[in-house]
UniProtKB/TrEMBL annotation:
GO terms for molecular function: 7S RNA binding; GTP binding; GTPase activity. The lineage of its organism: Bacteria, Thermotogati, Deinococcota, Deinococci, Deinococcales. Residues 267-280 form the SRP54-type proteins GTP-binding domain. The keyword Ribonucleoprotein applies. It is found in: Cytoplasm. This is Signal recognition particle protein. Involved in targeting and insertion of nascent membrane proteins into the cytoplasmic membrane. Binds to the hydrophobic signal sequence of the ribosome-nascent chain (RNC) as it emerges from the ribosomes. The SRP-RNC complex is then targeted to the cytoplasmic membrane where it interacts with the SRP receptor FtsY. It comes from Deinococcus irradiatisoli. InterPro entries: AAA+_ATPase, P-loop_NTPase, Signal_recog_part_SRP54_M_sf, Signal_recog_particl_SRP54_hlx, Signal_recog_particle_SRP54_M, SRP, SRP54, SRP54_GTPase_dom. It catalyses: GTP + H2O = GDP + phosphate + H(+).
Amino acid sequence: MFESLGNKLQDILERLQREKTLTDAQVKAAMREIRMALLEADVNFGVAKEFVARVSEKAVGQEVLGSLDAGQMVVKLVHDELIQTLGGESKQPTLKHEGNVVFMVGLQGAGKTTSTGKLAKFYKEKGRRVLLVAADTQRPAAREQLRTLGQQVGVPVLEVANGETPQQTKQRLQEALQKDFRDLVIVDTAGRLQIDEALMDQLADLQRELQPTETLLVVDAMTGQEALSVAKTFDERVHLSGLIITKMDGDARGGAALSARFVTGKPIYFAGTSEKLTGLEPFYPDRVAGRILGMGDVLGLIERAQQADLQNMETKKAEDFDLEDLLTQLRQIRKMGPLGDLIKLIPGMSRALPEGFSIDEKQIQKIDSMISSMTLKERRNPKILNASRRKRIAAGAGTQVSEINKLVKMHEQMKDMMKMLQRMSGGKGMGALGA
Ligand code: GDP
């Protein structure tokens, strides 16, 4: 997401930065282009207009024109304004010590049930005792989906019965909580393909009974501006406290995410970034702005590394770096997410890579299976890999001996490279390489 918008904005800003000083006309022309780029990304008209007006006003007010680093200053103004448009400071649902009830609402297909499972995982990992409630009284399949997610995350799921009234649900919930204390209840409500009055009434009734502390709307980034008119309707009936925008990993143009705060007045709490349970991230306007402008997201990268629990790779000397170490590192890095996505978090990278760039995950899988077919002794000491061993390993990994030869050679080259880099950095181990 944001790829096309990001590229356009970066182009415009790069041109400005190349100029020594800027004239009024140049800034005006750039602002017109920025406005076009925003509109093409499906950003709400009012948002685009205000965005450009604010940047222009500041550019004039701060006497950017004629100053030596005028281009730089405009980049900063655009960056700051992007952050503001996305919501400024990052906001999260307010959770009390106990008695938290989070209400999840949204249209069918938006990703509501998936996001409910992701939230359960997110908060469980933060030490919360979570109970999920599958509150769709009409669709058993929806309840079953949540039951499966509950099992995967390892949290209990209370399922409402067909045709159960909100009063009955409340009663059963209270009973369940008396038996098994939980400090966070997340309620997955019914969804429909379109807004309908009956659904809204039903949600409002259940909301009145359960008195949620937060009501979160799940919207699909792919539906663009439509998502925001849906949000307004939901807000009128069930007063939203915040939004979760899903499918940010897709190729949506980004307009919904960029306009959400302005159009709905609600903060984006979380972004859905994959179909998997791990694909939920707190939404940080400053990091997203950085990604759009190709400035990277170093903090995001570090966080993913921490989540993946990257072990200390610092102490290994190049000559001791064996195939077992290579395998461990490959697996740890893969835990951080798709490699193509990770690379784009590195500042400047998204710009430096050719369009449509991707890393062949299959190749990495292949290396993994080749090393996995070796005995520990072989991994620790690749020198013993004679012809018959290579043949056995190739058969085990379902590949050719020539591939094993390539792997052994690649490992040798890696060691040479590491040795050289370690010499250059004064022999401080791999940490000095930024590994
Ligand atoms: P619900 O009807 O709103 O409960 O929607 P579901 O939770 O069943 O999700 C609908 C579809 O969207 C499923 O195929 C999900 O796997 C998918 N989905 C949900 N969130 C995301 C996301 O953040 N990224 C991607 N790529 N797919 C998602």
